[in-house]
Amino acid sequence: MAGLRLDGLRKSFGSNEILKGVDLTLADGEMLVIVGASGCGKSTLLRIVAGLETPTAGRVLIDGRDVTDLDPSARDIAMVFQNYALYPHMSVFDNMAYGLKIRGLPRAEIRAKVDAASALLGLEALLERKPRQLSGGQRQRVAMGRAIVRDPKLFLFDEPLSNLDAKLRVQMRGEIRRLQRRLKVTSLYVTHDQVEAMTLGDRLLVMHQGVPVQLATPTEVYARPADTYVAGFIGSPAMNLLPGLLGRNGTMVRVAGADIDLGPQRFDRPDGHPVILGIRPEHVVLDASGMPWPVEVVEHLGAEMLVHAGRPGEAALTLKIANGTPLSDAIRVSFPAAHIHVFDQATGLRFEPIESGPSTS
Amino acid sequence: MERRTLFPGRLLPALLILPQLVLTVIFFLWPAIQAVKSSLEREDAFGTSTEFVGLDNFTDLFADPLYLAAIGRTVVFCACVTAVSMGVALVLAVLADTEIRGRAFYRTMLIWPYAVAPAMAAVLWVLMFHPQIGLVGAWLNRIGIAWDYKLDGTQAMALVILAAAWKQISYNFIFFLAGLQAIPKTIIEAARIDGARGLRRFRTILLPLLLPTVYFLLVVDLVYAAFDTFATVYAVNGGGPGQSTQTLVLKVYLDGVVNANVGASSAQSVVLMVGVIVLCALQFRFLGRKAAT
User: Fold this and answer.
1) What residue segments make up the domains of chain B, in order of their start?
2) Strands A154-158 and A186-191: what pairing?
3) Who has the most CB within 10 Å: A61, A161, A164, B56?
4) Cα(first)–Cα(last) distance of chain B, in Å?
5) For testing the chain A interface, which of B183, B186, B188, B194 should be mutated: the one with the most A CBs within 10 Å?
6) How much is the pLDDT for B142?
7) Does the CB of B214 have a partner CB in chain A at under 8 Å?
8) Given an 8 Å threshold on Cβ–Cβ distance, is A77 in contact with B193?
């Protein structure tokens, strides 16, 4: 039985189509992260699942039950908002108990559930406080607690960590992951932060302009991005994307005057087909016999450094190499064939090689 | 050099606030001082001589059953005007806050009564409730309810309350609507997910969050009803029938201007002044606290 199924969801605001057909199935207990730049429709998608927006077309099924026309409260879901949306006039206890009171649970049971949730989140000492007396991380926990006490079939997270500082974000990220694993509740998590996406999701859905571009595990999305958008979006710094032409019977790409061998991979396109060669900054290697690039800027990150190379107005290349590596003004680099991605220049879609050597992942 | 740079810095601000200061002195401070002065004096019937009588006017005032009745009447009037105008405004604001087609139009229409002159508002309600020619008044009589606000004091009171409250609904409406819109949308969405609907959501989420607005309007409306409704009440029935709609502000006018009892009227003005000062102090204190948090 599926935890959540979306069937051809579409949503338009006036003539502006925000969601252009989304199909999605989440297994019971799975955590799926929807990631994309702002305006890609990810929040709208989440709000439709929550019942806060009505889809223009399509259906939402939770646990096999069609909830498309149901009120949010009848869907058996809980949502954690970006600004936490705690009730400012209620204590932490009342914030968590509010939904249970409305459902008419007996007092003792409410007490027990709230106590259990606050123990899980370390909120026992704060139950009588008002939200304004809490720190950002504590508010975040209360928001989580409010979701947990309801024992929902589905957790919805709408960028819950965006308002926290960097250190707390890393900590809460881990807590959310542990909680979700422990409670085994199907979860939909929306974020624009690719690190959150990579670390939290069992699977990742990358959205771009209202269209799902890739649905796969984080490793798969990183290793085999479906198109140039995903390739540029996932990974930091972004993948180098260099326009070139396919040659030598599909086993070579000519980029910036150099022939780059694709090794055992061969792509079934005519020679001269315009492609985009992709290689991640961490996969570019310094090689005395490789192609020359003038160094523009070097950024030190601590353990690593970023080298930005290229000629003004021409293709740029970023390298991520160990800090302290000696550099000259012009470096020579080569691209290991196993880490080269090839995309169609016209459509941006990934080409799969027809003959491949060892797996690229 | 320093004096020169400072000099225009003082003259210019002084010049700029001068018009307001002049108006305040001529139309507010001077009459107020006059009122305090004449509240301590008694004038003979022909207005030819005055004598200082100390607090006699005040002791007479609070011994006068008519004045005490006017106080009671004013309290009832203020309570009703405040309750009606706030209640109706709150309902309208909640309705106008929902996503409806053409809500900009509704909102504009709801704000209009505020721009209607008080006397015009009174005339409007008189025309509606006139027992013979009024649409509602005549209809009430037709269906067997003896309606005549010119004969029945309770009915007259109801009518002035309606007219005065109607004037204030717009003001309250604006504040309530602004208050509702200041409530973060996600809080209401969280409440929706928690299953709170309709009246319950209003009572447990919206109303508590609106409380600051409610307090503020409570003070403003009380001040309005107590001191700012003269034109409306006077235009409806001139305080009648009998004294049934004679509120304190009306009594000041009737005793002082119509009956020419300057001393008694001035004493009443001073009492009202103290009332205004107390309510304004409350209001300022409240506003100050709101700004501080």
Assistant:
1) 58-292
2) parallel
3) A161
4) 43
5) B194
6) 84
7) no
8) yes
The answer to whether B183 faces chain A, any CB pair under 8 Å, is no
Residues of B in Cβ contact (< 8 Å) with A51 = 192-193
3-state SS class at B42: strand
- DSSP one-letter string for A51-70: TSS--SEEEEEETTEE-TTS
Q: Answer yes or no: do A85 and B186 touch at CB < 8 A.
A: yes
> If phi over 0 gives left and psi between -120 and 50 gives alpha, with beta otherwise, what is residue B42?
beta
CA-nearest residue to A132 within chain B is B293
Task: Kindly state whether B203 is in contact with chain A, defined as any CB-CB distance less than 8 angstroms.
Answer: no
Residue B244's SS3 state is coil
B186 vs A77: CB contact, 8 Å cut-off?
no
pLDDT digits (tens, 9 = 90+) for B136-146: 888 888 888 88
Question: Torsion-angle region of residue A348: left (phi > 0), alpha (psi -120 to 50) or beta?
Answer: left
Task: Provide the pLDDT for residue B130.
Answer: 86
Domains belonging to chain A, first-starting first, are 2-230 (3.40.50.300), 239-344 (2.40.50.140)
Of the candidates B184, B200, B211, the beta carbon closest to that of A83 is on B184
Distance CA A134, CA A168 (A): 14
User: Choosing among A54, A87, A159, which should be mutated to test the B contact, i.e. which has the most B CBs within 10 A?
Assistant: A87
How many pairs of residues across A and B have Cβ atoms under 8 Å apart?
Answer: 60
Chain B residues within an 8 Å CB radius of A79: 189-190, 193
Across the interface, whether the CB atoms of A71 and B205 are under 8 A apart is answered no
Q: Three-state DSSP class for A99?
A: helix
Q: Give the pLDDT confidence of B211-265 residue by residue, as tens digits.
A: 888 988 888 888 888 888 888 888 888 777 878 888 888 888 888 788 777 888 8
Residues 6+ apart with CB under 8 A from B255: B261, B264, B265, B268
B58-292: CATH class = mainly alpha
Q: Which residues pair with A26 in a beta bridge?
A: A4
Measure the CA–CA gap between B237 and B245, rounded to whole angstroms. 8
- List CB contacts (< 8 A) between A94 and chain B: none
Q: Is A41 left (phi over 0), alpha (psi -120 to 50) or beta?
A: left
> In this structure, what is the dihedral angle of CA atoms B256, B259, B263, B266, given to the nearest 10 degrees?
-20
Q: What is the pLDDT of residues A21-56, one digit of tens each?
A: 889 999 888 999 999 888 888 989 999 999 998 899
Q: Where are the alpha helices (DSSP H) in chain A?
A: 42-50, 92-102, 107-121, 136-149, 166-183, 194-200, 218-223, 228-233
Assess: ipTM above 0.85.
no
> For chain B, what's the residue count?
293
Give, for A342, the enclosing helix (H) or strand (E): strand A341-344
Cα–Cα distance measured from residue A339 to residue A260, given in angstroms and rounded to the nearest whole number:
12
The closest of A158, A162, A167, A3 to A76, measured between CA atoms, is A3
Residue in chain B closest to A53 (alpha carbons) equals: B189
| B194 contact A CB<8A | yes
Residue B100 has pLDDT above 80, yes or no: no
